Structures are given as C-alpha cells and as structure tokens.
Amino acid sequence: MLPAEQRLRDNREFRQVYARGRSYVHPCAVLHLWRRPPETLPGCRRIGFVVSKKQGDAVRRNRIKRRLREAVRHLLPQLREGAYDLVVVGRSRALNAEWPELKAAISELLRRSGSLLPSAAERVQP
C-alpha cells in the first residue's frame, strides 16, 4: 500500500486531475496524468484508483482496484520522481484479464504518459 501522502483521496483532487490532466486509454484501464506546478507538494507523486459502479457490485469493483494497485505497485520503483498526480480508472476487462496482460497494460499506459524512467520503458515488453 502507498503511504498516505502519496495517495489521492479527496473528490476535489480527482476532479482536478480529470479537468487539467491528459488521459491515456487502454481496453483494461484509463490513465489520467496531471503534472502539477512544482510549488504544490514538490517532488511528491500521488496515485488514485477508481472503478465505476457500472462495473458491478462492490466485490467486483474492489477486485478490479486490488488488481490495478498491485500492477502499479510492481512499477513504483521505475516511476519518475516529480510533482504529478495519476488516476487509474479500471474498466471491466481488468477483472477477467490475465495477470501478464494487466501488468503489460499498466506499464504501456505509464510508458505512453512518460511516467516511467527511460531505462524501465525499454525493458518493459508489451
């Protein structure tokens, strides 16, 4: 689990990322990235996870979130440092996707957004 200072929690923070950031789409997930001005929480990246109620009941939604969190956790050491916020939105395909497919989807989204370190982006096999 991420430390509290590295998590997005407030609805206001999520809305800010949606409004000001860019999005990157994959059939398993959508990544929203907002590079904050450096004076706001300098050097602190924050990550949030969201799954819509359209994806099913609480059990299904929580399973999708757990799978996404674990996929991101594997890539945390390879993420760039800096002041930016990430929101990972789970889609229904994330529930039934094979684990390598889900990991590859998250790494592809992070690579496309420029959040992975250059050497890490080259090592990742989609």
How does the helix and strand content classify structurally? alpha+beta
Shape: globular
For the sheet with most strands, the description reads: 4 strands, mixed
Order of strands side by side in the largest beta sheet?
A: 1-2-4-3
Radius of gyration: 14 Å
Report low-confidence residues grouped into runs of 5 or more. Answer: none
Oligomer: single chain
Instruction: Give the DSSP E fraction (strand runs of 2 or more residues).
Output: 15-25%
Q: Please estimate the helix content.
A: 40-55%
Q: How many extended strands?
A: 4
The string of secondary-structure elements, in order, is HEEEHEHHH
How many helices? Answer: 5
**Overall pLDDT metric:** 89
Distance between the termini: 25 Å
Structure description:
With 126 residues, this protein is of the alpha+beta class. The protein contains five helices and four strands; from the N terminus they run αβββαβααα. It has a four-stranded mixed sheet, sandwiched between helices. Helix 2 packs across helix 4. The chain starts with 10 loop residues before the first helix and ends with a helix. The relative contact order is 0.22. The model has no long low-confidence stretch (mean pLDDT 89).
